[in-house]
Amino acid sequence: MIACLPRTLLWQTFLMVALLLIIALGSWSQIFRYFQEPARARDVAQMVVSVVNLTRTALINADAGRRTDLLIELAALEGIRIYPAEASDELEPLKATRPMRLLTDDVRSQLGAHTRFASRWKSLSGFWVSFRLEPDDQLDEYWVMLPGERIENPSSFDWLMWGVGALVAAMLGAYLIAARMGKPLRQVEDAAKRVGSGETPMPLDESGPQEIAVVAHAFNQMTSALARTDADRALILAGVSHDLRTPLARLRLGVEMSGAPDSEVSAMVSDIEEMDRIIGQFLDFGRGTPQEPPQALDLVQLTREIIEPYRLRGVELRLDAPERLVGCVRPLSLRRALANLIDNALRYAGEDSALDVSVGVQEGELCIEVADRGPGIPESEVERMRHPFTRLEKARSNAKGAGLGLAIVERVMRAHGGRLDLLAREGGGLRAILRLPGGGNASVRARMQSAHPGGQ
């Protein structure tokens, strides 16, 4: 039952207020009926008693020969029918409701305890009440029928319509109140999404109710602080790139010209290159979500351009791809993601082991896969490996790096509206698959914009 309830504050508030209004209206309706029914019962009873008394008087004073004409005239003009009571009369009792009980008690108290009531006499329906011409004459008894509309409350439908109208107006007001409460929250939600995507949103309106104004003011302060932090981060990254990589370049040049044995020079240059790659990973991760605009690109050509430098280094790379496969991607960030996967595979599987790279379409998604024969990743550790600064020390004890490669790839794929799959390879190893949304360029672009509203 709880799972069927709406999850938004707007509809939860509206339903709660609407429920309270319905309960309140129902309660007031019952209270009104409870106190209104006795008064109406007295008025109707007085009318019934008056009709009976007038009819009795007319019958008593009329000539015996004209009583039939009198009965016909009452039926024609007033809708009142009068029949003599007989022991064989077929009667149907009145409904056992509170208003009817109040009415019959009041009539009986005025006409006498011998008064009887029925809702049907023989085949005629109506409000039937008995009377005697003389209180003690049990043989001279008559039935008088009043039309049902005189007894029923003719304004019940009117009251119902007015009640429904009032309820609809109250529920409309409740919806407007709930919507007014939800609008500032939706503005905060939209601004929070922009902050999460790396943008600096426009300041929220700090007017309105005090509680909303306080939240908007606190959010604006947080946004300003994050913007200053982001600017400081960009400045620090620029300094790191210059202050660390320049000395590393001089250090590498000095090592290569030192005259040391080639084996030692090669080892030191390798360490310097590893330090440079780690710095590059920190810079890539620190830049945040890529902001470049998506564009149509041949994924096969992009993959060939990335793997060619590795082949020139002597790395065995087998490519399985069609002649052409166009996708809507952010080229620079996708290049970085694919290069990270290849570097990750070479680091853990070794450059002597062949890598299998494939490009294709699977279940409507564009896929680029890098498969190695390294130690792989246990299924229980896959999600943890997507986080920054995470490595499998036991399985890949000889691996170097800062543990940012897969975290960067994960972030790039989220910006593309896709995902990174890390699967065990049959026969040992790891399959790292970049899954990009397929379909037309327009729909893919829309999905990428949804995944990252800050993209242009």
From TrEMBL:
The keyword Protease does not apply. Keywords: ATP-binding, Cell inner membrane, Cell membrane, Kinase, Membrane, Nucleotide-binding, Phosphoprotein, Transferase, Transmembrane, Transmembrane helix, Two-component regulatory system. The keyword Lyase does not apply. Residues 239-440 form the Histidine kinase domain. Its EC number is 2.7.13.3. Pfam families: HAMP (PF00672), HATPase_c (PF02518), HisKA (PF00512), RisS_PPD (PF16524). SMART domains: HAMP (SM00304), HATPase_c (SM00387), HisKA (SM00388). One of its GO terms (cellular component) is plasma membrane. Residues 179-231 form the HAMP domain. It is an enzyme of class 2 (transferase). CDD domains: HAMP, HATPase, HisKA. One of its GO terms (molecular function) is phosphorelay sensor kinase activity. InterPro entries: 2C_sensor_his_kinase, HAMP_dom, HATPase_C_sf, HATPase_dom, His_kinase_dom, HisK_dim/P_dom, HisK_dim/P_sf, RisS_PPD. It is found in: Cell inner membrane. It is a multi-pass membrane protein. The chain crosses the membrane at residues 159-178. It catalyses: ATP + protein L-histidine = ADP + protein N-phospho-L-histidine. PANTHER family: SENSOR HISTIDINE KINASE ENVZ, SENSOR PROTEIN CREC. This is histidine kinase. The lineage of its organism: Bacteria, Pseudomonadati, Pseudomonadota, Betaproteobacteria, Rhodocyclales.
